[in-house]
Task: inverse folding
């Protein structure tokens, strides 16, 4: 019989340092954690982490007997400015690379905080997300697109967008 593993989503622990977060997870008997990888959560991980930072996070997780199962990204693919959109894509790609380096099989992201982006912008957004998913797949990482906000705020929106993305390694 397979056992169910419980994990902690990083957002609820965003004000803690990684060490405090991991210690809390361990004390709760939780074995899997998600790390925030976003600029508004400086206590966790960020795309400028180098090999030493990665090793410290891995050592901290090992010390507490934890598995890092996901990184949480915060993206906005509905940027109309091409430079800002390019920056968002680069940020997600680096988060995907960081997940691979940390041994986390998933990256959770959003499409946009904007619940009703204009159709041409949404089309570009989905194309960029598909490109990121193919890159993630090349590193054996899966993208998990968070629903409940932005263009995935309603069941109908989720169904429409996920149907468009169904051929890609996105869930």
Result:
């Amino acid at each position: 019989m397979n056992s169910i593993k419980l994990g902690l989503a990083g957002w609820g622990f965003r004000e803690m340092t990684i060490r405090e977060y991991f210690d809390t997870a361990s004390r709760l008997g939780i074995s899997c954690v998600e790390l925030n990888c976003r600029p508004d959560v400086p206590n966790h991980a960020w795309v400028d982490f180098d090999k030493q930072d990665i090793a410290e996070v891995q050592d901290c997780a090992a010390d507490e007997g934890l598995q890092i199962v996901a990184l949480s990204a915060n993206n906005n693919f509905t940027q109309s400015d091409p430079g800002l959109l390019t920056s968002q894509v680069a940020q997600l790609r680096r988060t995907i690379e960081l997940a691979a380096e940390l041994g986390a099989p998933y990256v959770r992201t959003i499409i946009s905080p904007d619940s009703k982006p204009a159709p041409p912008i949404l089309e570009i957004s989905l194309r960029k997300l598909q490109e990121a998913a193919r890159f993630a797949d090349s590193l054996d990482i899966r993208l998990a697109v968070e629903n409940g906000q932005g263009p995935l705020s309603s069941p109908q929106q989720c169904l429409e967008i996920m149907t468009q993305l169904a051929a890609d390694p996105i869930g």
Observations:
- The chain has a mean pLDDT of 85.
- The CA atoms of residues 34 and 133 lie 19 Å apart.
- The two ends are 25 Å apart (CA to CA).
- The first helix runs from residue 18 to 27.
